[in-house]
Amino acid sequence: MLYELFREKPLVVAGPCSAETPEQLYQTILKIKAENPNIELFRAGIWKPRTRPNSFEGVGQVGLDWFLDIKKELNLKTTVEVATPQHVEQALKKEVDILWIGARSSVNPFTVQEIADALKGTNVPVMVKNPINPDLALWIGAIERIMGAGIEQVAAIHRGFSYYGKGKYRNEPMWQIALDFKGQFPKIPLIGDPSHIAGKRELLLELAQRMMDLRYDGLMIETHIDPQNAWSDAAQQLTPTDLKLLLSQVQVRKETFDDDFYTNKLRQMREQIDLIDQEIVNHLAKRTELIRQIGIYKQENNVAIFQPKRWNEIKQTRPNWGKAQNLESDFILMLYKLIHDESIRLQTEENSEGSIEGNN
Ligand code: PEP
Ligand code: MN
Q: Which of 83, 149, 233, 241 could form a disulfide with 116 if both were Cys (CB 3.0 to 4.6 A apart)?
């Protein structure tokens, strides 16, 4: 049911953030289908977990009837978010094909377990969004609970992670978490939700492209007949026509290229990378040896490990050296913070009776 939809790669799940009225839901889906005939799976939030009270919290159960009528008339598949055992029961009664667990539910093992218990014996496919906090084990745990209920078809949805303050995105993508998930569970399809990462439609294309470049298996994109006037997530939804435009712009690159010349050249370049990586590691080892010696030397002379002046000097010079070589200074700074943390750890170990911080 869910897995067969991935034959059309990438799987696209479209539909409004929330079902608002029968008309809004029908017009949205009709137009998405007219503009994008390949889309087979449609989303709509029926129960909406909102951060603050007094926001629109979804139309509730009645929306399932609207969705069912549309599903039958247009012959399509539907998915809704469930957050309680009652939601599961009601959604299945109204023939929803696939369920998804939202980020505010996957964060709570009690909630996920209750949903899993309600799913026992159904074998309905379930998509699990990453929890709102950046915790890979919690995401995996939620999927394990669902699979533990005998659900055979599960997918993961990467919707980014919340953080305090304002940044480019509504939710930080933290790509590495999604990639670690993919690395550990290569057989579980990974769907990207650029809408909730972006928070604004202008950023959707670059995010969707990035997801395709990282070989995600699908995209869930919030789409509304009249995004400006949507009752939830107005800034991030696309019109069905803009969805079509976005999908035509996203390039899906080949998984691999079975050509001798290509394979040989790639192998040669990777061999060079291997040699360079060996040099990097050898140099790090030499640097580490010096750090140990400095730690001992400071201890012998009763000098504090942490020397702010020296760290400031490193912080300023290295990113500039990088810049001169066309490397992002932020990247070099991050790299040196990591190296510095390790120096602190080593020198503290060498000098366990000395100051608690290290420097080099
Ligand atoms: C949604 O998909 O509309 C939603 C509420 O998403 P999330 O759980 O990712 O916040
Ligand atoms: Mn939404």
A: 149
